[in-house]
Amino acid sequence: MRVAKELGALQVQRLRDPGFHAIGGVPGLMLRITASGSRSWVLRATVGSRRRDMGLGGYPGVTLAAAREKAREARALIDKSVDPILARKQARSALIAEQAKAKTFDQAVTAFMDAKGDEWRNAKHRQQWQNTLAQYASPIMGKVLVSDVTQAHVEAVLRPIWREKTETATRVRQRIEKVLDFARVSGWREGENPARWRGHLAELFPTPSKIKTVVSQRYRNPREMHDLMVTLRAAKGTAARALELLILTAARSGEVRGAVWSEVDMQSGVWAIPAARMKAHKEHRVPLSRDALELLKSLPRIEGNSLLFPAPRGGVMSDMTMTAVLRRLQVDDATVHGMRSSFRVWTQDHTSYPREMAEVALAHAVGSAVEQAYARSDLLERRRKLMQDWADFLAKPAGTGARVTPIRAA
What we know:
Structural class: alpha+beta
Shape: elongated
CATH class of the largest domain: Mainly Alpha
Mean pLDDT: 86
CATH architecture of the largest domain: Orthogonal Bundle
Strand content: 5-15%
Number of helices: 17
Distance between the termini: 104 Å
Order of helices and strands: HEEEEHHHHHHHHHHEEEHHHHHH
Number of domains: 3
Largest sheet: 4 strands, antiparallel
Radius of gyration: 37 Å
C-alpha cells in the first residue's frame, strides 16, 4: 500500500476540494469533504475480502490527533481479523438491549399490572394492589433497577411492618415476589427471587400465622337477629333495603351493592350472580325466599339505571354505606360481613341442614379440587327451602321455636 504524506493540522485545515484526501500517519485515513463543504474522517481498509469505509467522526469535532488514534485502534482490530464496523454495530446493539432491560422496580410494577390487568376482579382490587406497593415498597426500592433488587431491599420493606401489620406485610411480600418473577421472565433480571418465602424468607421471618392475631368478623347471635330485622325494616333508605336483602340471602356486600335487575328472575325466584362479580369467579345462584321477593317487588325501578340499590348519584353505593346503617341503628356488636356468620351459626346450631349445603349457600368452595370437579349441582332447589327457613327464623321473635329441618327432608 502506498504510504501517503503525513499532513499536519494546519494543512488539513486548508483542504477545500470535495472528495477523499489521504491524511497519512495511519494507512487508509482520509478526510472526506462533500460538495456542501462538510468534513468527516474515514478509514478506508480491506476487512477480510471486503473494502470498508469506516466513519470516525466529523471534523473539526474530532481532531486530527483523535482521528489518527481511532484509525490505529481500528487497524489493530483488523489485524486480529475483527471487523471494527461490525464490532461497533454489535456493541451498539448490545447497549440498546441493555438499556431496554434497565427497568426500575416501579416501572416493572406498572408493566406487570398492564400485562396482568385482566386478572383483577375490579378496579378497587387493582388499586389496592398498586397502593400497597406504592406505600411500602416504592419508597425503598422504587427507583432501584429491578435487576439490582436484592434480599436487603426486600427485608428493608418488610421488617418495619412484619409484626405490627402482618397481613399487610404478607400481601406486600407476595406482590413483590410476583413483580420480580415477572421481571425475570421478561428478561429484566436474573437469579433467584429474593422475595420468595419457602426456603428463603421463611428462614428469616416468623411465620405469619404464628404472630398475627386473627380477628373474626363480629356477628350477632342468631337469636337476636329478629330484633335487628324489625328495627332495620322500620329504617328508611336504599342502604337499609340493601342490608335487608344481604341478610335474607347471606350474600356479600359487593354482590348486593352491584346487583342489577337483569340478574333477578322474579318468576322463578332466583338471583343469578355472574362469575365476574363473584369472589370465586364462578356463577352463584341464590334462591329467593318469599320475604326477599317481597322486598324486591317493593323497590323502585329508576329509568336508565339497572342497579337494584343505586347510590344517590346513580352509581354503585360505597362499601361503607351499609356499615353506616348499622351505626345509625346503634348496632355495634356486628359488622355487615358478620351477617353471613350469623346465618352460618344458625344453620349449625338451629337446624340439621348439612354443612355442605350451608357452605354452598355462602358461595364457599366445598371439598377437594377433585370433589369440586364432580360436584356439578349447586343444590338450588334444596337450598330454596334452607333460605325460606332462614327468612322464617328472622321473622319470628326469639323463643317462639324455630323449625328444625330433618336431614332427610333437607
